[in-house]
Specification:
The structure holds 2 protein chains of 2 kinds. Chain A has helices at residues 37-51, 69-78, 94-108, 127-135, 188-194, 204-207, 235-245; strands at residues 2-6, 9-11, 33-35, 57-64, 82-87, 112-116, 139-149, 152-159, 162-169, 172-176, 199-202, 215-221, 230-232. By secondary structure, chain A is of the alpha/beta class. Chain B has helices at 17-28, 42-49, 70-81, 93-106, 211-220, 228-232, 263-269, 298-308, and strands at residues 2-6, 31-38, 56-61, 86-90, 110-114, 116-119, 122-127, 132-138, 143-147, 163-166, 176-183, 196-200, 223-226, 253-257, 274-279, 292-295. In chain B, strands 5-9-4-1-2-3-10 form a 7-stranded parallel sheet, sandwiched between helices. A 5-stranded parallel sheet of chain B has the order 13-12-14-15-16. In chain B, β2 (31-38), α2 and β3 form a beta-alpha-beta unit. The chains are: A alpha/beta, B alpha/beta.
Chain lengths: 249, 309
């Protein structure tokens, strides 16, 4: 059984981002970049499926500039067997990424495709579902538990009111939520070994995919700042302020 | 222009966030039709017909849609939505699940989690956990949009008298099935609809200690939330999580107890009207967004607060 894990290179989650003064976007110069945290959970889940004997091969794939190789190497160090970079310098938007991944899936024929539920830059939460629609596959989004048996996959999903479990016929798409697993750290020997694992490159043209974006980003601005208020000295003063000043209770 | 809004519901009642989506649709302008896809959902359709500003309610009552399986619901919405200029739903876990499938099936982009309508094709939405706001213009023929549940004032639940039209289309992809759901039952208001929320963080130290919040919640008619740290530590279940990756809330009053104020939590609550923070660490970042901060040990402050309310 083959598992395909699409991963995204994003600004590291510890970085406090800055919007460019000309409002053209977020300043990415000299900023630490990492594997999107939800994608890291996806890699971990795939590697665990392999360790459990369910999966035989884990393939990491990313869509973006050649800089994404750094994150793909990280995935290889975490346990992926090989990696593919679909290389483009264009602003890759979810639908175009989903189309590129569909073209790759036609070659790879993976049984399980594990996405992160959203990237922490765009916060779209679209790519996995779009890929599932284009390939006609069932999906288990926001997964907190995944079990595979007899050509089916059971996915427990985190939904607004609690949890929901669905059964999907393989091949199927999963998107990871935070509590699916806790990703491991790459060990030094594995980081060394990762350098020798295969990392193939392919262009969208070779896959026959048009990456032209259809959404235009007109401006990116910082949010309205919230002013810090006051410190109260006691619970009594707090209740008084809420009743008589803010009038919310 | 004509807009198709997909209702968020549980076959028994309409989720209030649906009226928020209708409010966003009204800002775009044009006829607004509302689709209720479910099983045994005629009461929801009747409720939807009363919403102010809705022209027509489409009711697709079929076993295939009973559990909102995205493979089936998205196929229905893509079929019905092809003739509309806009397809909109809430950025809830239900909307996030099926809407991207609709967009991909129609070959158009989706604009997620909009917080304002600038024009019929231009919208503002938060990126980077709300640390930046992007103005996005869609050049697609159909605009597929999910709406932030706290960003618009909901339209009135009463006042409309739309006709309910049955939709017979049945899409059953046959590749997925519902097994079970563990829906948390609570007498308290839902987090995303509550006007007062009291949330606990890692400082609560255990799930049992969340009972300290309950008495206060009872007195204020508040919902109880939690930070990601509290959920990850296993204190409380995931459906209580407020934050970038949990629920986005904007109540009149938000009380953060033992919550340090990580960016990911602030992203979920910083649009609240009044924020109160109770934390024993006076340097906690939560105080930078709080209107009223109380530096105190929560185990002393909470019982005192309950007594004084």
């Amino acid at each position: 059984m083959k598992v395909l894990v699409p991963v995204k290179r994003v600004v590291d989650y510890n970085v406090k981002i800055r919007v460019k003064p000309d409002k053209s976007g977020v300043d990415l110069a000299n900023v630490k970049m990492s594997v999107n945290p939800f994608c890291e959970i996806a890699i971990e889940e795939a590697v665990r499926l392999k360790e459990a004997g369910t999966a035989t091969e884990v393939v990491a794939v990313s869509v973006g500039s050649s800089a994404c190789k750094e994150q793909l190497r990280t995935c290889l160090a975490l346990g992926a067997d090989r990696a593919v970079l679909i290389e483009t310098d264009q602003d890759a938007q979810p639908l175009a990424i989903a189309r590129a991944l569909k073209a790759l899936q036609e070659k790879e024929q993976a049984d399980i495709i594990i996405f992160g539920k959203q990237s922490i830059d765009g916060d779209n939460s679209q790519t996995g579902q779009m890929f599932a629609a284009l390939t006609g596959l069932p999906q288990g989004t926001f997964a907190s538990k995944v079990t595979v048996a007899d050509g089916k996959m059971e996915v427990t999903r985190e939904i607004d009111g609690g949890l929901e479990t669905v059964s999907l016929t393989l091949p199927a798409v999963v998107s990871t939520d935070l509590r699916l697993n806790e990703p491991r750290y790459a060990s030094l020997p594995n980081i060394m070994k990762a350098k020798k694992k295969p990392l193939d490159e392919v262009s969208p043209d070779e896959l026959g995919v048009d990456m032209t974006p259809t959404l235009e980003i007109l401006a990116v601005e910082p949010p309205a700042e919230r002013q810090a208020g006051i410190k109260v000295e006691s619970v009594e003063e707090l209740v008084d302020k809420l009743k008589n000043e803010a009038k919310v209770i | 222009m004509s807009i198709l809004v997909i209702a968020d519901h549980d076959n028994a009642e309409l989720k209030p966030v649906t009226r928020v989506v209708v409010a966003a649709a009204q800002q775009i302008g044009g006829d607004i039709d509302l689709l209720v896809a479910g099983e045994g959902c005629s009461a929801v359709a009747e409720e939807a017909a009363k919403i102010d500003g809705v022209s027509k309610v489409l009711c697709a009552d079929n076993a295939a849609y009973g559990h909102q399986l995205p493979e089936n619901v998205a196929a229905l919405v893509a079929e019905l939505g092809a003739d509309y200029s806009h397809i909109m739903t809430a950025h809830s876990t239900a909307g996030k699940n099926f809407l991207p499938r609709v967009a991909a099936s129609l070959g158009v982009a989706q604009i997620s989690d909009i917080q304002s309508v600038e024009s019929a094709d231009t919208f503002k939405r938060p990126i980077y956990a709300g640390n930046a706001i992007a103005t996005v213009k869609s050049n697609d023929s159909i605009k597929v949009i999910s709406v932030r549940g706290t960003a618009f004032d909901p339209v009135a639940a009463e006042g409309g008298s739309a006709a309910v039209e049955a939709v017979s289309s049945a899409h059953d992809a046959g590749v997925s099935s519902f097994i079970n759901a563990e829906i948390v039952q609570s007498e308290r208001p839902e987090l995303t609809a509550a006007s007062v929320i009291i949330s606990g963080g890692r400082g609560m130290q255990s799930g049992d200690n969340f009972s300290l919040l309950e008495g206060i919640a009872d007195k204020l008619g508040a919902a109880i939330g939690a930070s990601r740290a509290a959920v990850d530590a296993g204190f409380v279940p995931n459906d209580m999580q407020v934050g970038q990756t949990g629920k986005i809330v904007a109540p009149d009053l938000y009380i953060a107890v033992g919550i340090s104020g990580a960016i990911q939590h602030l992203a979920g609550m910083k649009d609240s009207k009044v924020i109160v923070a109770i934390n024993k660490d006076e340097d906690a970042p939560i105080f930078q967004v709080a209107d009223y901060g109380l530096v105190a040990d929560l185990f002393q402050a909470l019982p005192e607060l309950e007594a004084k309310l």
